Amino acid sequence: MIPYGRQTIEEDDIEEVVKVLKSDFLTTGPKVAEFERAVAEYVGAKYAVAISNDTAALHAACHAAGIGPGDEVITTPITFAASANCVLYCGGTPVFADIDPQTYNIDPEDIRRKITDKTKAIIPVHLAGQPCDMDAIHAIAKEHHLIVIEDAAHALGSEYKGRRIGSMSDMTTFSFHPVKPITTGEGGMIVTDSEELYRKLVLFRSHGITRDPDLMTRNEGPWFYQQLDLGYNYRMTDIQCALGCSQMRKLDRFLARRREITKRYDEAFADCANIMTPYQLPETNSGWHLYIIQVKNHDRKTVFEQLRENGIAVNVHYIPVYYHPYYQEHGYREVHCPVAEEVYSHIISLPVYPGLTDEQQDTVIETVKRLTK
Ligand SMILES: *Cc1c(COP(=O)(O)O)cnc(C)c1O
């Protein structure tokens, strides 16, 4: 099977992990800070907080943003459930705005329509690595005093108007799951320019506990620590962060290969009437985490099944979040985002990852063309 996404782990990645295993610190050691610095510097943010995964990152970000019962947070239905679940974790209410029919990203015009006096934040998701229309989103946020938390699980290294994703909003979160732009097995990161948010995030990641005498209400001695907030154990290990540091050094190479693969797909499908290739917003440079096509004049399910039968492990990104039974049973039965539902019924994600060979890609292209003639 050719998977839709796969990690690239090389000998030097393995060596970096083994070094940590032989060192004094398996967790809360120097590799965590090194990985945080590497990501912060790369994306152009002041602070970075390594955290156990992007789901935890989104939870921490919503908590730091002060989301609570009665607050509404606007996000897209075409995303992984975690982008909305994080609002529920904090007792808030996710509100779904429809997507743009070309980019499949959240539509700023529909964000405007969904704003109420309860709206507190927006969580845009850069689907497939394609940056959202951030100028429009920031304009809305400024006008309505909303916090912006970018879910950039797909978008490490993606650029919007010459700036990297992670340098623009109150907080931006990343995932290092194996199919994402770089991997640490499981892992996540939140970046921010705000010292206040940074402090809250660091506390939340580790039980709400601090050893910093400046933050404590009193200090009984060198053993002393205090719990100031209700946090979790959402820490990342040094083992994971060593892999992260090593992967960061390869990110530009990985992105270059993803962009090369995308270009080959675009060219190969240019003359296929039944395949709609992905659109790229002007002045953006996607990292192409996913290559999502729309299948026209054919049944998506049939094409999907035939691709799998032909050894190509395609996928669908995503099922609208409010379709899930949990959401249906918790107040979302009447929710409809017509563009998202229409797009969902046609999409298929084709394989794209740095290790995909030209020969494998040719097999995918030839098979997709044959099945959608
Ligand atoms: C993968 C993903 C997540 C969750 O990331 P984890 O690190 O697996 O918790 C959240 N949002 C989006 C859009 C994702 O693709």
From TrEMBL:
Signal sequence: where?
A: none
Sample GO molecular function, one term? transaminase activity
Instruction: Name the Gene3D superfamilies for this protein.
Output: Aspartate Aminotransferase, domain 1, Type I PLP-dependent aspartate aminotransferase-like (Major domain)
Q: Supply the InterPro entries for this chain.
A: DegT/StrS_aminotransferase, PseC, PyrdxlP-dep_Trfase, PyrdxlP-dep_Trfase_major, PyrdxlP-dep_Trfase_small
Which parts of the sequence carry N6-(pyridoxal phosphate)lysine? 180
Active site positions: 180 (proton acceptor)
What GO biological process terms are annotated to this protein in UniProt? polysaccharide biosynthetic process
Listed A to Z, the keywords are:
Pyridoxal phosphate
Q: Which domain of life is it from?
A: Bacteria
Under the heading Pfam families, the entry gives: DegT_DnrJ_EryC1
PANTHER family attached to this UniProt entry: DTDP-4-AMINO-4,6-DIDEOXYGALACTOSE TRANSAMINASE, TRANSAMINASE
Q: Name the NCBIfam families for this protein.
A: PseC
**Stated family:** Belongs to the DegT/DnrJ/EryC1 family.
Name of the protein described by the UniProt record: Glutamine--scyllo-inositol transaminase
